[in-house]
């Protein structure tokens, strides 16, 4: 009899503790608890790790607290679809009155929400009450991490929000203040390259081997397994001479990389750029062929807009320092990695988020207020929603209705109805900060004024899939001589490893013979379709596959790319985690940033809020980053606190 095919074969490699006699203990959302070979606590108590396989769609979540919350898991997807598909009138009839009243309710527990909470805490301390409603099983929004246990090593990787630059310690920016107040360091060190182990130059984050600083790090272009030369290593070191492209195309790309020409001399450069798409700038103003646009499409898609250059504002491309926008990226070989100044925590910007949580709710993360303990210690879920807390975080709670009690300009509070564990509940608050995206906000605020509804109709979003693959070694990358890669054939577009941050006793290894995480960024842009169509089409593709189907594609791609360098999937892959983000990025079209035809920009209209409800999501900045999210949340909270 033929052997039955294992549809998710690499689940068995995540950690030895996840299987007993060949059976997955974590299946069906059950949690596996077992003594780990390491302990993050300084006591002799062993930390319990958890391996989670939630369902066939979500797949494996890894170990640790974040194992139940990798991207948009099935439970958050289903709760969101409840808002879209169910009769709200009938659902609200089942509402349970909790009797809870708050000075502020913050909807959304990502960076925007925690920025609002930080501002509230700064103003009132423990003298007033605040509730954060978060629809995921773990707080953080996209600032969450994946954790693997591979051969006794704890390996971390970002689910979404990733790289950061160090703020100036002495300035008065919000992020600098947060660093000072929370104890975040203003200086970091990373594991040095050891030439006796590997000569590969590796970035300190996952993006800077993709386009920016590509010349600094060892990057490969994968042209296909059957290509005459499957891998072109460091193609920009000889100005693309070895690339199997036409001389005309290579000349065009080099001209774009050089970026020496100026295309607009007016004082209103930003507004001018916001009047066109990046494709129009590249082709109509700069004179490039459509092939150049196609080259840059996935770069801008994974970095900002999640859509093609044909619908993205050229001003958004300027924010990314793309060619032709007069925000020139120039490679400087005299600089070292620290001069470049772009870093990544082991779990991405989760490290920043956890420091803020520890500052606001000291018991939310177990252990002392020490750097490595804050990064790695267990979340104390019981501590974040205690009845006597001045500030609470309520998880798995999806807001489904928000409305002033009476007319917005005369009401004394706002009613907030949310869905949690199959029940509909209601609280009320003197003020509300919407730290969630407009695709939800416009559906759940029943008294949203027409100007805001119309403005929100100009907000578009695109999806991204972040895949973290833990491998037991990276000898295959070392043999190829690369740390990052761009794929021109097969599944996905980019992958990278990172040189680990030195965190203390539990610093991750950086040795080709030891485990590491490869992070794949997969965009779903659809050039040729309108701004209204690209996001939904991308989401349809992102959400329409099971974990096993993605796993098969990933393994097939890695085998095609790396098998000739000694990679063996059965032996080398220790685990695969999918992080699906259906609305990963705002996708700003021309006019989004500064308005169009003399009209006010949509984001500026929404920023005004109305009544006791204020809006503070990072989408309002037009560029979704952790610092901008914190700023937007802080601004919205300050406006909302006028009603307390």
Provide an overview of this structure.
By secondary structure, the chain is of the alpha/beta class. It has a domain at 96-144 and 347-460 and 589-643: FAD/NAD(P)-binding domain (3-Layer(bba) Sandwich). The chain contains 20 helices and 23 strands. It has a 7-stranded mixed sheet, sandwiched between helices. Helix 3 packs parallel to helix 11. The radius of gyration is 24 Å and the shape is globular. Mean pLDDT is 91; it is low at 1-7 and 10-50.
Describe this protein with a few key phrases.
disordered N terminus; 5-stranded parallel beta sheet; 7-stranded mixed beta sheet; 28% helix; globular; alpha/beta; single chain; 644 residues; FAD/NAD(P)-binding domain; 20 helices; 19% strand
The chain-level mean pLDDT equals 91
Task: Report, as a whole number of angstroms, the end-to-end distance.
Answer: 72 Å
Q: List unreliable stretches of 5+ residues.
A: 1-7, 10-50
- At the first level of CATH, the class of the domain at 96-144 and 347-460 and 589-643 is Alpha Beta
CATH architecture of the domain at 96-144 and 347-460 and 589-643: 3-Layer(bba) Sandwich
Strand content: 15-25%
- Fourth-level CATH superfamily of the domain at 96-144 and 347-460 and 589-643: FAD/NAD(P)-binding domain
Helix fraction by DSSP (H/I, runs of at least 4): 25-40%
Q: Return Rg in Å.
A: 24 Å
Trace the largest sheet across and list its strands.
12-11-19-20-21-18-22
Shape: globular
Which structural class best describes the helix and strand composition?
alpha/beta
What name does CATH use for the topology of the domain at 96-144 and 347-460 and 589-643?
Answer: FAD/NAD(P)-binding domain
How many beta-strand segments?
Answer: 23
* Count of individual helical segments: 20
Please summarize the sheet with the most strands: 7 strands, mixed
């Amino acid at each position: 009899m033929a052997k039955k095919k294992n549809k998710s074969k690499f689940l068995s490699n995540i950690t030895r503790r996840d299987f007993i006699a060949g059976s997955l203990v974590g299946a069906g959302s059950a949690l596996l608890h077992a003594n780990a070979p390491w302990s993050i606590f300084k006591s002799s108590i062993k930390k319990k790790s958890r391996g989670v396989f939630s369902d066939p769609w979500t797949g494996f979540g890894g170990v640790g607290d974040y194992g139940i919350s990798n991207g948009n898991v099935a439970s958050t997807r289903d709760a969101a679809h409840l808002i879209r598909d169910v009769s709200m009138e009938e659902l609200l009839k089942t509402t349970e009155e909790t009797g809870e009243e708050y000075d502020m309710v913050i909807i959304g527990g990502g960076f925007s929400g925690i920025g609002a909470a930080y501002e509230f805490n700064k103003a009132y301390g423990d003298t007033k009450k605040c509730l954060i409603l978060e629809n995921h099983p773990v707080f953080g929004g996209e600032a969450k991490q994946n954790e693997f246990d591979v051969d006794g090593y704890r390996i971390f990787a970002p689910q979404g929000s990733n790289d950061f630059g160090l703020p100036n310690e002495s300035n008065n920016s919000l992020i600098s203040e947060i660093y000072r107040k929370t104890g975040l360091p203003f200086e970091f060190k990373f594991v040095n390259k050891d030439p006796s182990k590997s000569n590969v130059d590796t970035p300190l984050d996952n993006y800077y081997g993709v386009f920016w600083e590509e010349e600094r790090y060892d990057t490969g272009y994968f042209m296909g397994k059957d290509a005459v030369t499957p891998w072109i290593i460091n193609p920009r070191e000889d100005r693309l001479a070895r690339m199997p492209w036409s001389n005309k195309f290579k000349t065009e790309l080099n001209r774009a990389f050089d970026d020496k020409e100026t295309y607009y001399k007016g004082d209103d450069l930003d507004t001018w750029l916001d009047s066109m798409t990046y494709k129009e700038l590249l082709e109509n103003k700069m004179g490039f062929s459509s092939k150049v646009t196609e080259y840059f499409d996935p770069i801008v898609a994974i970095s900002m807009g999640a859509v093609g250059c044909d619908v993205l504002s050229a001003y958004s491309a300027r924010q990314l320092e793309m060619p032709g926008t007069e925000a020139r990226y120039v490679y400087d070989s005299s600089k070292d990695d620290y001069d470049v100044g772009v870093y990544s925590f082991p779990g991405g910007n989760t490290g920043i988020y956890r420091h803020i949580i520890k500052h606001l709710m000291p018991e939310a993360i177990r252990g002392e207020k020490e750097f490595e303990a804050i990064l790695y210690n267990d979340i104390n879920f019981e501590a974040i929603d205690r009845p006597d807390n001045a500030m609470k975080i309520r998880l798995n709670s999806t807001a489904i209705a928000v409305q002033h009690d009476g007319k917005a300009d005369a009401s004394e509070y706002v009613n907030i109805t949310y869905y949690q564990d199959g029940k509909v509940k209601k609280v009320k608050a003197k003020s509300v900060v919407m730290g969630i995206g407009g695709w939800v906000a416009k559906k759940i605020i029943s008294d949203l004024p027409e100007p805001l509804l119309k403005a929100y109709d100009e907000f578009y979003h695109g999806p991204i899939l972040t895949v973290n693959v833990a491998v037991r070694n990276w000898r295959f990358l070392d043999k190829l001589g690369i740390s990052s890669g761009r794929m021109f054939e097969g599944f996905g577009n980019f992958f990278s490893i990172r040189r680990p941050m030195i965190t203390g006793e539990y610093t991750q290894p950086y040795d080709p013979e030891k485990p590491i995480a490869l992070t794949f960024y997969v965009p779903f842009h659809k050039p040729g379709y309108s701004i209204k169509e690209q996001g939904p089409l991308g989401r349809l593709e992102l959400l329409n596959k099971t974990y096993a189907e993605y796993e098969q594609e990933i393994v097939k791609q890695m085998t095609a790319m790396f098998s000739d360098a000694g990679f063996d999937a059965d032996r080398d892959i220790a685990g695969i985690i999918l992080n699906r983000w259906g609305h990963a990025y705002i996708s700003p079209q021309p006019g989004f940033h500064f308005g169009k035809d003399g009209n006010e920009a949509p984001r500026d209209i929404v920023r005004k809020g109305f009544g006791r409800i204020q809006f503070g999501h990072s989408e309002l900045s037009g560029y979704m980053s952790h610092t901008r999210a914190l700023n937007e949340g802080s601004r919205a909270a300050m406006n909302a606190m006028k009603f307390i």
